[in-house]
């Protein structure tokens, strides 16, 4: 295409985007991809919003330490293991942890095949005091794992990366479809009264998509980075190879730092020096 022809296409796009074949082609792509990943995006958004307060949730779910009230002598590690396996005869002890306060309940993990029990035992009489991981802690941890890995480990993390790419695709195709033309673009920034419900839904969707575009792109790009950090690390080394003189001073390191920092909304942190 000649430069003049390219200029005409660009001018046509600015003034009459509705007549462009690309816009018409992207509309069904945007529509069906939105339907396909809509529930996924909703789940990620809800869990991510809750986990902004994960530290507060962990503190709220953490119970006070259980202190033994028994007056007997403290049991040894072997005696506690024996007490635990006596209560759970088909399990074997795989971990025993004492707190600094030796009268505090002892955390003992027992395994049978793939089943792992984490229990608290009285350090003086060896009685079972309940689960060492409280329900609230378990719920917050699993919510975090659902958000990060879809409860599927490294495979889920990779799928999350694909979901983040899908979110970026929705954002870019939505922007192309949203552009109404240079004469009327301001009208698409608000909703209008006295229109039918279909037009109202269109205006509402367009307006919300435009005003949230920066945040959508931010979460999409940073989400891809968190799911594929090795790729971004290799890309950073290609753009600005690491040397003895630039270690800790590379611009690419600052960029990748902020990709992670911004995803969690930590805007009050340190700046780029």
List keywords for this structure.
single chain; alpha+beta; disordered C terminus; about 270 residues
Account of the 3D structure:
The protein has ten helices and four strands, in the order H-H-H-H-E-E-E-E-H-H-H-H-H-H. It is α+β, with helices and mostly antiparallel strands and 273 residues long. Strands 1-2-3-4 form a four-stranded antiparallel sheet, with helices on one face. Helix 2 runs antiparallel to helix 5, helix 3 packs antiparallel against helix 5 and helix 6 packs antiparallel against helix 8. The protein is elongated, with a radius of gyration of 28 Å.
Strands of the largest sheet, in order across it? 1-2-3-4
H/E element order = HHHHEEEEHHHHHH
- Quick check: average pLDDT? 87
Helix content range of the residues, please? Answer: 55-70%
DSSP strand content: 5-15%
Radius of gyration: 28 Å
Please state the structural category: alpha+beta
What would you call the shape? elongated
Q: Main sheet, how many strands, which sense, barrel?
A: 4 strands, antiparallel
- For the record, give the distance between the C-alpha atoms at the N and C termini, rounded to a whole number: 45 Å
Total count of helical runs of at least 4 residues: 10
Query: Tally of extended strands?
Result: 4
